[in-house]
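Q: Structure for this?
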Amino acid sequence: MLARINSYALNGLEGYGVGVEVDIHAGLPGFDVVGLPDTAIKESRERVRSAVKNSGFDFTPRKITVNLAPAYTKKEGPIFDLAIAIGLLASTEQAGVDEHRKPLPTIGEYVFLGELSLSGAVTRINGVMPMLISAREHGVKKIVIPYANACEAMYIRGVEVYAVKTLRDAVKIINGDAPAPIKTCDVLPNAYGVVAEDLKYVKGQYSAKRALEIAAAGGHNIITIGSPGGGKTMLAKCLPGILPDMTESEILETTKIHSVAGILDERYGIVTERPFRSPHHTTSRIALTGGGSSARPGEISYAHNGVLFLDELPEYPRNALEILRQPLEDGVITVSRAARTVEYPANFMLVASMNPCPCGFYGSATHECTCTPSQRGKYMSRISGPLLDRIDLHIEVDEVNYGDLTSDVEAESSADVKARVDAARKLQTARYAGTPVHSNAKMTSEMIKTHCSLDPAGEKIMQSAFDKLGMSARAYTRILKVARTIADLDGSASVGAKHVAEAVMYRSLDKAVK
Amino acid sequence: MLLSDLYLWLSQSRLRTSKINRLLDKLSPQRLWDGFADEGRYLLDEKTFNALKRTRNVDYIENVKRYLEANHIRYVTRADPVYPTALAQSEVDPPPVLYYRGDLDVTRNPCLAVVGTRRASQYGKYFAQNAVSELARSFTIVSGLATGIDGYAHTAALSVGGDTVAVLGSGLFNPTPVSNLGLFDDICRKGLAVSEYPPDVHATEYTFPERNRIISGLCKGVLIVEAAERSGSLITARCALEQGRDVFAVPGDIDKQRSVGANNLLKQGAIPVTCAADVTEFYGMRPPEKRAPQTLALDFAQEQVLALLKDGDKSFDGLAETCGMTVSELNTALSTLMIYGLVRERSKNLYCISK
């Protein structure tokens, strides 16, 4: 007899329905899966066989054929295990039939997702949240998922989700003995507390801390340059603590990506704080942007709505850095492979750190630099102009002296800074309402013209800064954007001379180029 | 045969200048050419003889002249009256021919060599940029086109419209380092680039010390800005002493490797220089007129930062803790002062009053 069970699969972040057809017919005993399955699915035959047997059902050798429709898309992962097992039980009339051995109509109402263990337990799978969202859009009403994924499903309204622990629980559901669906609840930013360093433990470094505040307020990309041991990494790790709260749509977007990638925290099942990704500099190009034959998302997508921290920027392979240019501009990355083309969101804030030269002590007052000018030039040239062009704030971080380390002066806490950042962001949200832009960093040239017009005093100081400090032309719009954010932090509607003057301080690389 | 062509012959033979000059002590160029076959064979060793014989050809010399002209390279020989007079003394070991691009007349003004380490610190860079831009009003600045101090000195001279001379350690077709090629082109257009080597000669480790004698030879004095204990700049200083030129040195930190050489020179009696006027007054020139200091209206915060910096150099953190302003106010004040040119960043994150 033929049984057809509904399931779901993912193409990038979009789910699509997959029909799992199981047929038992005459022939030599065998178990075949067709419909472009990958290795994990082919292996599911063994898992299903054991799970069925160990759940107390009958598995007499028969000729079994499983088809995953549509047959032309490549299916991946073990998420069809549960659907195949249910289909097998239904076609052998062990489940989903009434007392007259007639199939129950319930079987077509549900979508089954889940991996099976040999014992018959249903185990955790990746990508539940995007599949639920797509299924809801496609009009699916009832979905069965593994119990371990239950917390991801809590935030999806408008669809009944049933969490099962074992194959027997799933069988109970199609036999018409369904438990209550999962209760939904609201999404709350920072529901589980932010795990970040607190700015109050950073001694000294006032200028750098101020720059971080500006970067967080305007969503600006930032690079810290300094000798080893200056606290560049520590400063970057403080950033999540002062970033503005995520909005509900941001939370769902980021959670979808993390769900697909399988990096969600099992306890929470949702990303409520801005992600902070720090891939090591041995990271490959593909790992950074996403790709592979299945076009998976990469680190820059994991960092969507959050921070991508690249420590020791010049150590990254040049080709890995150059591909950041387009996502930095557009906020999305299109991963194209022979099998599929997927667009992943990648709207991240780039935070980078680097040494001023290979030995790390160029320009230091206490150590002597041992690098030759050509070594230094080579080191700096590993970061291309176009990439540097997309970084608004450059700050220099110096070694901390002993007195600062041991001083008892309590610095401002992250919470205080965050309050100011939130206020500045609110101004920006109001200003850019109705446009795709959310923060000052993403302003278009036209917006710069309308929102960053300088008063005569500001114009004059900008002029002198260019003459005196040898700024490059590309620095001009960057300074305007940063000055706009400084004015926002100041609560000022217009950009004045003092805002420009402060913004000029954060262009150290432009000055160094001269 | 013209005397200048004979010198060109000697230069094109690619023999070392010292060897040519030793030869010329014994024979005049004309006699060397005329009596090459008989007298020369007894006087010269085989290598020298072959080198001279290879180029002893009137057509060859004419070809060389056409080649130089086609490549816009001019030359001046010791037979010409425009040959820089300062070079013509025997202590300098004057090259028979100088190949140059640019304007040879700039060497007629008083010249001052400014040389120093290739690994210049912020301190050396500051001095080279500031003092040299003042000195360039009174002197033609001569240096060696190297990175570091040499490059800063050339750039500073050009930036104020002064004259500058680059003495290369290679032929004019192969200026080094590559990073200063842009500067080299500027100097060819606005100043003078000169070399004793035929244009297609590549630099070797011997050519640089050799050309240092020309740097000092062209000048009244040599100013060493920063030099390590064993530095090419010290060779220039030694040449200057042998040639009877004045040696000036800029004192540096006693604990820095790159100032040891300059400080040693001071101990041995070089003239200490802390500002451009030290040099101009030494030669009894009127110091270049300083522009009247601008009167700027500073606000309270800026005055306060200036007052704090008058007590000594301070880091940003040091200022932030003592000034009692918010970081943002301090940033604004400091930035404005730097734009006005009243404060500069001495080394990374260390601010001081600029004079």
